[in-house]
Amino acid sequence: MELTENLQQLESTLQNLLEAPNLEWILVGGKGGVGKTTISCSIAMKFAEVRESVLLISTDPAHNLSDTFDQHIGKEPTQINGVPNLFAMEIDPITQTKQIEQKSEKIFEKAKKDESLGFFQNLLNDLSTSVPGVDEMTSFSQLMKSVSEMKYSVIIFDTAPTGHTIRFLSLSETMDQPLTQILNLNPDTFDTVSKIANSLLGKDDIDDDESNQEKLNKMSKAMHTVSSRFKDKEKTTFVHVCIPEFLSIYETERMVQELFRFGIHSQNIVVNQLIFPEKSAKLLEILKIDDDELITNENNNNNNNDNNMNIDNQIIDKNDTICIMENCPLCNSRALMQQNYLSDVEVLYQDFHVVKVPLNPFEIRGIRRIKNFSKLLFEKY
Questions:
Q1: What residue numbers bound the domain in which 290 lies?
Q2: Which of 60, 92, 135, 158 is the catalytic position?
Q3: For residue 189, is it within any domain?
């Protein structure tokens, strides 16, 4: 493929997200362990500087938002300490699944014996035995219920690993045909089916007076609303996160192809945990610890040693860190391997903003470190 001048000029930052005035949903995803949560939190933190209200949602069953922000975050929007317009929440699919099982056990058993349900019996069997995918379905149903009530200028989704996210994004498409068929069922079967739909929608009372048709139409409408929002490139985009290794890049390509198939916009790839020995001094400057964390003469007995820094309760000399990174055979070997994969990414995704983020010398946790880390995403490094 021949590079055009326009493609060559794509900026290697996420600044394009901030410059999209109509952007409302940002999904962040990739293979497990590549730093999705850190990237998601950093994006949310940056948007909080320019938008009126920001919500960060974790749809990953293994939540990390609380650990990253160093505060408790629950299933309802929780204000982030020190950032009045930034909120976060963690959808708990496991708890939601257990609630569905407890409420619907008797209904499932009755429905599975009802031959008039026909094709729907297979779905009931799947749900009642909690096959893989039920957690994503319950997350999706809870998301649909919450989306209609959310009034935030932008919402960032910290998604589950690639395979789970693909199932999550395809649920509206997967469920569309069954719901259409259910709506055309004999009215006599609606009593059973509507109770199940009611449970999936998260209702506390499965025996309310809402009509069967209204229940199922509500689920169908919610799915179509979310699906339409996903496919609106002005309002929704997907940010890929990977590391410069084969499996991670393979998963990224898989996700890129699936998003294209679903019609979901994506034009940003964050390549995380890169080793740049020659740029270690610049990295430490960007990620500098605040003045109150500098090790002074009074508490370390090292006269005139302004290079010492307290990183995670360890005294580290900035010059020593630079020296180690530049002369470490392991670092240099890893850096060479990473450059080969990074070159592949740059060739394969010529029409993407490829953001190169270095491996950090310490854990990114807490507001100050997240803010500093976000500079690596939105400013040229």
A1: 277-327
A2: 60
A3: no
